[in-house]
């Protein structure tokens, strides 16, 4: 399988393209390996550039399997790992195949003259997920990296799309005439493979936590190997809050990946989820949406809109891998209807009234008891964390109102408030005029005559089932998010007109004490959360 020309390959996610470029690359290296190479063996023969650390590690692992009994050595340079180990690798070991992320590779190329010498013998350059590399802002890094590489190399570029940006990288990276291999079709946009069944539900945001609970519980009760589940959320705060709730409600094998985790923590959790047996559940933001392969995922759930139709496709692509069948279900709020019907309808997504009807009822006594426990678990959530999720929710949708075809932005505020009630707050948080204006809402502040107050470091709660389980609602007093409060017991309420912070507020343990951990021990070794520093931006 010699590489006789530069290749531009358009391929869907989950179609085996990693093996598609590793096999011919390894074959070429073996064919051109000489006795002199065995003695010296210091040149970097093949370079694979990946947009994310997780994907790079996955490619390196696959390459190591293929090279296990061959005279080829695989190295992997990614951000988040000790740079000195990379330098030691460059200075002390042969490096036939190098897998790297752009940032770390550029840094090492600019500072390590030995690596500059090693890449002069490069035979093959592979740019994987080229469209993602560009979306993540790596064009300048790629330009500087390619300046160090010999013109005599062969180049393979893989992408799910052939946008003008991708074509500009073709002109940058290719030194010879290239061939196009399009496995999708000239006029065909990226799509969800037919082997993945897609459905969506439309319900008030207040119902979303309970809908997800029922969906996951019933998926886990399947007799014939239910498989793993990945649940995508629009923000980091939502990912963290849902994970806390489901752990408190007794769900086992809950894993959590988002931008609050550093690279090592995310990789550790990803490895544990990948190795898990049975119906493990991964709650994640879009850091897990592209490229990374988790074997055994039979269901993908999307809680709300993705950043666009392409991202929706990549999320769905986490299931149905390697020719297996998969299921993708979206749970949306009413204001997202235009996005679903205009942007996702052509992708094969259909409304499933039967599934919605099944999830709207609970017949078994065991399920009713489990749902009672789920409602009681909401009492253990920190109200501040719920409110931080609310502000992140508003920030996400306000910033994407146009691309998501949201015509009435006030509905974002209303549905976000309903979601806080779904997590157990008696009333949605009140919002000041200045806060709404900063988000681009021209509406008047939303205020409530009767909402919540601090009581023993918590706001007053309600105990209602999302589908009307007969739980009672408490009355009480509240404070608003502009710092005002009606009959508040103390002055610990805070204004949402301050700075926005990525870390969010301090989380309360399930025993009632305030601590920095956020509650019970996490099944995925979640790190302790830092104390609040105000709010600076949205996650």
From TrEMBL:
Broad EC category: hydrolase
Catalytic activity from the UniProt record: ATP + H2O = ADP + phosphate + H(+)
Region Disordered, annotated ranges: 446-539
Basic and acidic residues biased stretches: 446-463, 487-506, 513-539
Function description: RNA helicase.
Pfam families xrefs: DEAD, Helicase_C
SUPFAM superfamilies attached to this UniProt entry: P-loop containing nucleoside triphosphate hydrolases
Family: Belongs to the DEAD box helicase family.
Annotated domain remarks: The Q motif is unique to and characteristic of the DEAD box family of RNA helicases and controls ATP binding and hydrolysis.
Highest taxon of source: Eukaryota
EC number annotated for this UniProt entry: 3.6.4.13
Molecular function, one GO term: RNA binding
UniProt organism field: Syncephalis pseudoplumigaleata
Keywords: ATP-binding, Helicase, Hydrolase, Nucleotide-binding, RNA-binding
Family annotation (InterPro entries): DEAD/DEAH_box_helicase_dom, Helicase_ATP-bd, Helicase_C-like, P-loop_NTPase
Protein name: ATP-dependent RNA helicase
Keyword RNA-binding listed: yes
Domain Helicase C-terminal: 211-380
Domain Helicase ATP-binding per the UniProt entry, residue ranges: 1-180
Keyword RNA-binding attached: yes
